[in-house]
Design a protein that fits this description.
mainly alpha; 9 helices; Tetracycline Repressor, domain 2
């Protein structure tokens, strides 16, 4: 009985995260209120506060959720017995698929997390809340260098190149500027990233 209650509570918690993620991504952090989220959830504001004590706490939990989602997928790719070049291709394809299937995840990262750093300063500063994602990207680079496929360079320089490229394309897609779908660019982008990072 207790397990059922725990599972139901966890499902509800994830529903709140998904709803808040959608609203924050569309309306922005400051324009979205806890009553907005509760209304969309068809639950009382008081009940929502039983799950998250503040809007800031919810915002931080969302970035942890986004980071865990990205980290799990990249971890699975890191575990595959394939070349670094192929891993790059798979990461790019996965990222672009995510942009198309769940654009709110990427929108949240770009338009809320990066644009409202003050919300994430208390208990979520630096890489604390994005650790699962950052750890897997670090592993990817370390293994690529160890295999002799990637140039040994400063992690943040390599990370900026890789994720800056992906984030830039996601932004252009979100603004409806690209003449083709993101998926149509995946192989070319992956190859460009590989050439820029290779040993």
């Amino acid at each position: 009985m207790e397990n059922d209650r725990t599972r139901r509570k966890e499902r509800r918690r994830i529903e709140i995260i998904d709803t808040a993620l959608e609203l924050f991504s569309k309306q922005g952090f400051y324009a979205t209120t806890i009553p907005d989220i509760a209304k969309k959830m068809k639950m009382s504001v008081g009940n929502l506060y039983n799950y998250f004590g503040s809007k800031e706490e919810l915002a931080q939990e969302i970035i942890r959720y986004v980071s865990a989602t990205l980290g799990e997928r990249i971890h699975a790719i890191n575990e595959e017995p394939i070349t670094t070049r192929e891993k790059i291709r798979k990461i790019v394809r996965f990222y672009f698929e995510l942009c198309e299937e769940k654009p709110q995840l990427i929108e949240y990262f770009l338009r809320v997390y990066l644009a409202n750093r003050e919300v994430f300063s208390d208990g979520c500063e630096g890489m604390i809340c994005v650790a699962p994602f950052m750890t897997e990207i670090m592993v990817f680079f370390e293994e690529g260098v160890r295999a002799g496929e990637l140039r040994n360079q400063d992690f943040f320089s390599a990370f900026g190149l890789f994720m800056g490229y992906l984030g830039g394309m996601a932004f252009l897609d979100g603004e409806k500027i690209l003449p083709k779908t993101l998926g149509d660019y995946s192989d070319e982008i992956a190859e460009n990233i590989y050439r820029a990072l290779k040993a």
